[in-house]
Write a structure and sequence with these properties.
Layout: E1 2-4, H1 18-27, E2 30-36, H2 43-53, E3 56-59, H3 72-83, E4 90-97, H4 107-124, E5 128-131, H5 136-145, E6 151-153, H6 160-168, E7 171-175, H7 185-193, E8 199-201, H8 217-221, H9 233-244, H10 248-262, H11 266-270
Parallel strand pairs: 1-2, 2-3, 3-4, 4-5, 5-6, 6-7, 7-8
């Protein structure tokens, strides 16, 4: 019923119970997950996980990983996408983009890798999964320069104008656990007001825990965790439905259509 359009199932937080995580997701109606790579070193891992569990994957170099990346990693990305061009589990280039939040990340290096990866996505005819934390405007500037086949602005938290511009450029907007927090006023307003064809759903597991998984700093210091997982997507979907005034079934149909518009190759896996 639901597709988690952004889940890092390969993260070490899932090492102890990864198969159970996938099973819980399926039991909750999350029938598909998209697993984005973050560096060349985990290309094979996300591909293998997608094949093992009947899921989808994307290949790319995350902006937080470009400082350790080499120029030849871009060639390795091109080669990996070419080798997997007939793999139905490959649905996008990602996670790529820019990050203006984490200190110590050189923006010029990020820009260079982002630009080259947009060109790679364009040449491969694949949509992109975009990271744009505190960097929506420069990411949009890149999209205006390089015509890509659309995709998803993951964990979107920009302005309404930026949201509309992403949509005009062929991108859908990823909403997840942050939307469930009552104090996340901007994200909740965007989720309620953007065009019907804009929202898709994600967890960004194991990160961006929804409100019901939140633990205080004191609880975390005592050992509590806030691990998110794709099974939570069903309740996250209920939040989107409530914010937009949609029935649950209508939400499922609308979000599925938006997801397939963003990631057309998913259709073969879902069917």
């Amino acid at each position: 019923m639901w597709t988690d359009t952004h889940c890092h199932l390969d993260a070490r937080e899932f090492d102890a119970d990864r198969d159970a995580v996938v099973a819980r997701a399926a039991a909750a109606g999350v029938c598909m997950q998209v697993l984005p790579a973050v560096e060349v070193g985990n290309f094979a891992t996300v591909r293998a996980l997608a094949h093992r569990h009947g899921l989808a994957y994307a290949l790319g170099i995350h902006p937080m990983c470009v400082m350790q990346a080499r120029d030849e990693d871009l060639d390795r990305l091109r080669d990996a996408l070419h080798a997997a061009r007939d793999d139905p589990h490959l649905v996008a280039v990602g996670e790529i983009g820019l990050d203006g939040f984490v200190p110590g990340l050189d923006m010029a290096t990020q820009q260079r890798f982002f630009t080259e990866q947009l060109k790679i996505a364009r040449d491969a005819g694949l949509p992109a999964l975009l990271h744009s934390r505190r960097a929506a405007d420069p990411v949009l500037a890149g999209l205006r320069r390089i015509d890509t086949p659309g995709g998803i602005a993951h964990a979107f938290n920009g302005s309404r104008q930026q949201a509309d511009t992403f949509v005009a450029l062929g991108y859908r907007l990823g909403f997840g656990g942050a939307m469930t927090h009552e104090r996340a006023l901007n994200i909740r307003r965007l989720a309620a007001e953007v065009a019907d064809e804009a929202p898709v759903l994600e967890t960004d597991s194991p990160d961006i825990a929804p409100q019901w998984l939140y633990r205080t700093a004191a609880e975390r210091a005592a050992g509590a965790t806030m691990r998110n997982e794709p099974a939570e997507l069903a309740r996250i979907a209920d939040t989107l439905a409530a914010l937009r005034g949609w029935a649950r079934e209508a939400t499922a149909q609308r979000v599925r259509a938006n997801t397939l518009a963003a990631l057309p190759r998913l259709a073969a896996l879902l069917d």
